[in-house]
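Sample pair:
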Amino acid sequence: MSAFAVFIAGVISAGWQMPLVSVLAASMGTFFASAAGMVINDYFDYDIDLVNKPQRPIPSSQITRKGALYFSVLLFGGALICALFTNIWCIVVGIPAVLLIILYSWKLKRTPAGNVTVAFLSGLALLYGGIATESIQLVSILAVIAFFASVSREMAKDIEDVEGDRLCGSQSVPVALGVEVTAQIAGLFLAAAIAFSFLPYIYGIFDQWYIAMIVPVNLAMGYVAAQMLLKKVEKISMLQKMVKVGMYVTLSIFLISRLIL
């Protein structure tokens, strides 16, 4: 889905007059980088997945760890090749992003910095689509919204995985601070995402039709944020899924507002 988000961000940035080769190459590069990140993440997460997700490919012996490592290298190579068909700024941003994906899976995931890293990469994917068109004003706002919402969702997902993380020595936020405090922090980040979603209207980029579409989404996200702030950790699985849906709906609203309204 990250590759699709990059393409949509390119459309949002420049409309259908976007540099198609550059945007498609950025999208394919993101696809390869995201796939490589998932594979290398499974390689490094072998011990945690034995507890939390034994059905994953490596714990269930569908693929060996060494095979997963080689496959990730191949995918990362594909991402770097795609970057050559974009522009210099995509290359400048893309190479460090690939290194950050590896560093996240290797070291950062099991620390409190893991949530912020994933959120940063989620926002960067949207910004990357704008960089491919050399127009980032509008998608910068979208990237900030995605960052805050992603921090919230990643913390919620860590609450779900807290038992396995604790057994494997991971220092995730719920392990370090407790699940209730983590839920409240997640609620605050989601509230920040809601607040930033009003900026396109405040700055006159979109009109009242944007507000008419974004307000119902924000009401739903407001409910989620309130449940997190109230420490309703028993609902955390449903809440993080609602955040994911809200992120995709917000992306769609930006696209509709840019092309149609």
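The domain at 138-261 is CATH 1.20.120 (Four Helix Bundle (Hemerythrin (Met), subunit A)).
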